[in-house]
Specification:
Blueprint: H1 3-19, H2 24-38, H3 43-70
Helix pairs in contact: 1-3
């Protein structure tokens, strides 16, 4: 695999995640659902939400890249 091929894979995975599962619309939807369940979010709860969303994004991103490279 060349560096250009790897760059294409990582860019594709990043763009797919940002336009689908982690789009602004989806994040707003999940924030609203969390707010409905728990009431108004304080700054700490909002920070925790973003922290865990970031962890999920990273996991999904790495999974997509490794799946493309290893399972091809």
């Amino acid at each position: 695999m060349t560096k250009e091929e790897l760059n294409l894979i990582t860019e594709k995975a990043f763009n797919n995640l940002l336009t689908q599962k982690y789009s602004s619309e989806e994040l707003i939807k999940r924030i609203n659902e969390l707010t409905e369940e728990n009431g108004e979010l304080n700054p700490n709860q909002f920070a925790m939400f973003l922290f865990y969303e970031n962890l999920e994004f990273t996991k999904d991103y790495l999974n997509d890249i490794l799946s493309e490279i290893i399972c091809k």
